[in-house]
Amino acid sequence: KAPPYMSHITVYLKVFSPLPRKGADAMMHRWGLDLLSHGLRQVYGLTLSSHALEYRGDHEGLGPGSGNSGHILLGPHGKPRLSDHPQIHFSLTNCPGLVACAFSDGEIGIDAEMPRGASPALLSRVLTEEEAKMLASSDHLSFSHLWTCKEALAKCTGLGLNSDIYRVGFRLSAAAIPPAAKYPPLFYPLLPVYFQRKDYYLAQGHLPDGHIISLCSAKVIDSIKILPVQQTRQ
Length: 234
What we know:
Strand content: 25-35%
Low-confidence stretches: 61-69
Oligomer: single chain
């Protein structure tokens, strides 16, 4: 068992072939809930079917003790939690070809993307000056290496993407980016970032198909376990 200031992270993920554009978002949303249901059963012994997991806003009065234990409550900026199990920390992400759900014993955020570029206007709006210089001077880094870090921090804090998140500078080392490795992906630690008077800890990994996955934790990351899942429905 890790000390209270360190976290174990378990990531369930599903990789799939490109989906038809029509209905793809709904399908990935459902697969994400399948992974959440699967992980809740394996990690916490909670049997909540994916069909029982529905998104609700806190304003709908489904707080702790409401009896709606299967409902996912969304905070003001979209951070999900289970109404009757606030001690369970999880985060979801999806992108073309991948859905993932991360669990931890502290606040957690996960984001994934295929490597991509970005317009100069977007770069100037969401990256710090140092990040933009780092990206411009590297042949190995893509915009997604930085963007997934910002998304993961936004999810971990529950504050959503905003100008405060954009001002946080992430430091990546191109030398630390591994070549395509055997499954599961190799994760490597990034330097922590200081945000709202506390440190947040990061790790980044790559799947053999090219997906970049970034994790952000409110605790020092002690271990990361990656569990591919093919069939998730109960």
